[in-house]
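Re: [ENG-882] Designed sequences occasionally contain unexpected residues at chain ends

Forwarding the minimal case from QA. Structure tokens:
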């Protein structure tokens, strides 16, 4: 009997330890609702000639106490953030300007967080057509250190989008100098990767100019990465 009780005690101890090791559940990522992805947002309330107030909406996510909304002006790369327990929040943002937005879910019982997808939109202004959204880097992630291929190459990958869906071309600039001024050529809108030759222990810089059929252009800003 004593042996049985000892074994039972061990199982209870192991079970309680495993439960405590699990910790609180991590929050899940929210699903974005509005403004729609790659859209023109026309519902903002005008504040003055330069600004309008836009209400951002997302769905509730599991195991979440609060949300942090992040909205980035893609012309200046300046972010605005606001925290809330609700599933919507309003910010005053520039008219006629491209933005990205995302939501981070948080739980007060854990340091773990979860971030939603990132959507792009234009906040409506007086213009009737818009430049393409600045191209977004996929890989290499800016600031990362990566391994080159056996052929001493790295693949640059990006995404591009446009409210009118009329992108005509991408032009990629690449160099070990900042800013990169060497053009790798003008690529058709269906191309979003290009292989480049690289050397070890070197930092490289690249950027993308996106052009639509009306001649409007956008600049991605400069990305960088180091090669092992």
């Amino acid at each position: 009997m004593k042996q049985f009780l000892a074994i039972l005690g061990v199982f209870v101890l192991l079970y309680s330890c495993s439960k405590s090791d699990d910790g609180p559940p991590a929050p899940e990522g929210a699903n974005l609702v509005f403004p729609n992805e790659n859209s023109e947002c026309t519902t903002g309330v005008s504040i003055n000639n330069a600004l309008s107030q836009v209400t951002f909406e997302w769905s509730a996510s599991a195991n979440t106490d609060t949300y942090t909304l992040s909205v980035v002006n893609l012309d200046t790369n300046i972010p605005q953030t606001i925290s809330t327990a609700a599933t919507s929040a309003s910010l005053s943002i520039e008219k006629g300007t491209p933005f990205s937005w995302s939501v981070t879910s948080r739980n007060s019982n854990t340091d773990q967080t979860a971030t939603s997808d990132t959507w792009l939109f234009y906040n409506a202004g007086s213009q009737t057509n818009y430049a393409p959204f600045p191209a977004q880097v996929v890989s290499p992630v800016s600031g990362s250190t990566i391994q080159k291929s056996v052929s001493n190459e790295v693949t640059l990958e990006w995404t591009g989008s446009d409210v009118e869906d009329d992108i005509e071309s991408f032009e990629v600039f690449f160099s070990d100098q900042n800013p990169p001024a060497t053009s790798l050529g003008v690529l058709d809108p269906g191309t979003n990767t290009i292989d480049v030759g690289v050397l070890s222990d070197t930092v490289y810089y690249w950027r993308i100019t996106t052009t639509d059929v009306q001649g409007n252009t956008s600049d991605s800003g400069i990305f960088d990465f180091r090669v092992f």
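QA comment: On inspection the terminal residues look reasonable. The longest strand covers residues 202-212. Proposing we downgrade this to a documentation issue.
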